[in-house]
Amino acid sequence: MATGGKAARKPAKKQSDSVKRRMAQLADELEQHNRLYYLEDRPSISDAEYDALFRELQALEAEHPELVLAESPTLRVGTPPADGFETHAHLSPMLSLDNAMDEAEMRAFVDRIARMLDRSDPIPLAAEPKLDGAGVELIYRGGKLERGLTRGDGTVGEDVTANLKHVLSIPLELKSGSAKPAAAVSIRGEVVLPIAAFKRLNQRRIERELEPFANPRNAAAGGLRQLHEIDTERLRSLEFRAYSVADGRPGSLASQSEVLHCLVAWGFVVSPECAVCDDIDAAVAYHEKLLLKRSELPVEIDGTVFKVDDLALQEELGTLSRSPRWAVAFKFPPEQATTTLLDIEAQVGRTGALTPVAKLDPVRVGGVTVSNTSLHNQDEIDRKDLRIGDEVVVQRAGDVIPQVVRVLLDRRKTGKDAPRLYRLPETCPVCGDETIRLVDEAVTRCPNIDCPAQLKNNVWHLASRGALDVDGLGEKLIEQLVDLGHVKRLSDLFDLDRDTLIGLERMGEKSADNLLASLDKAKETTFARFLIALGIRHVGATIAELLADGFGDLASLLEAKESDIAAVEGIGPTIAESVASFFADPRNRAEVDRLIGLGLRWKAPKKRSAKSTADGALAGKTFVLTGTLSQPRDHFKERIIDAGGKVTGSVSKKTDYLVAGEAAGSKLAKAQKLEVPVLDEAALLEMLGSD
Ligand code: IVH
Fold it and tell me: For the whole model, what pTM was predicted?
């Protein structure tokens, strides 16, 4: 309270001094980041962070117009050209764009232009992907490419003509389309490096032990600005996408969409996603759709640029010193953000693997708040040189799980504030057993199969839908059962009594009865599900099916040697070893016996007479099932097998038919690619000889 009071009574002069200091500091920082971004092509902060600093300065300037610095980065574009390049003035200034960070800001933009134009009807907006590359001006004189300039400080740019001439999508001469070019024409657009080329170039760089490019934008901007030892392969991979005619625009053109058509007629590449949105709702819908398509696009984009489509209205709205009033960049939620790595915790998984988990200062990235994320293993931590207390970059691209991409080394503190190195613990954080790491494995493990962490996870796995599907056995309940010692091994689950259950937290008589009933129901299962429930490493649904089909019954599987298991089609040596060693362990054998003793059971697979299968209608044919069929896949599988056919899990050249139900996806695509015949359910039934 006392401090609050003091701050409130701070004399006006002192307050404006501190505002002034903060403004100068922000201006300095932004200047430095501009240099790193535009001149050195190695930004040290994310775009979102840059935007936040920029906006803080803008807000302070709006509140204190008298303190605005003449050289403020908010009034300028980019950064002065680097030494070594010839420079040239742009035909007209190359401006930047104002950003809208969310839908509210986008709507505010539309309201503002409507107000300024005094219009109540919707104003059509041209929508274009905001390309994440390097802005370029191309000057054509007499229809011929005279010069290409980077944006530079917006007034003067670096002459990169020689490099640009290698970019195949830049016409050296304008085609005379329907609109004849004026004597001098300025075309503006973005030079981008398509993602596929970026990956290819980086692969080559790694092979040649060169530092890979951080992202396509840096690779593109850096490529353009090479002075010596020109990397022509990189230049030839670049693409120029045009979006405006800044000078010498044919008078016949009335809208941005017509400008784009004219650019195409002159021989330029224009983003194919460009469209016109009739009102704000259509604009928001376009933006959302583009965000969904983003990961499939060949080039990186970071938002939508909306421009008032009508050029006369653009004129009427005019421009500010830094950006036009008639356009806005509606940015996608940032995919990268920086935050502090507060701690690293080791979590023990179902297989005993210790996973280091980063505890982050919560940060919004890619539309979600991230506070925990897996660091995978010790090697990953070492490779990235992550230390507790470091500032790190967190990324969430599309639906991908968020990850820590790198440390901001230039922000690493030294002395007593230096970050701490981390090593996975030598003892299991749950049971205290000594952890092990095999020589050629990346994973550190707790070897104790009775470790409560493993047990909890194993119980959870056993209860999951793909295994025994026990209703009402949630995480909290499992925790209590294991922590209180009621479940010391998997089989104890089926030996629980009503009184024990009622004694648990949040467990009434009714829920206890329900749980007992679902445990009882879960005992009736299939051989494959039973195998899944045991939690054998590497044995998921597909492998369990193969084992169940291959051995038919438990006794045969228990007798099988590792080589017998490896002989089952689709089972490799790692899995065979894992299964064999599981059943070789007497503790696991005892568990299996006890589970059976407690009533776990399944129907023996139907005995098929060798004769019927060999003569069956589908004898010798291999099928793959995909998509949603009218009955569970197992039903069709049984029938195919009964008719002598075989069902496998994945499409290959050996597949005779793919049976595709509704919403079939990648398997269907693969079958089409391999020219495997595709059947619908009706066609399958016909082959099976039923109607
Ligand atoms: S129009 C006066 N359209 O984004 C308006 N710019 O942050 C000039 N950009 O400097 C820009 N895609 O380098 C426009 N479809 C697009 C764009 C685009 C990317 C870049 C451009 C601009 C920057 C502003």
Answer: 0.57
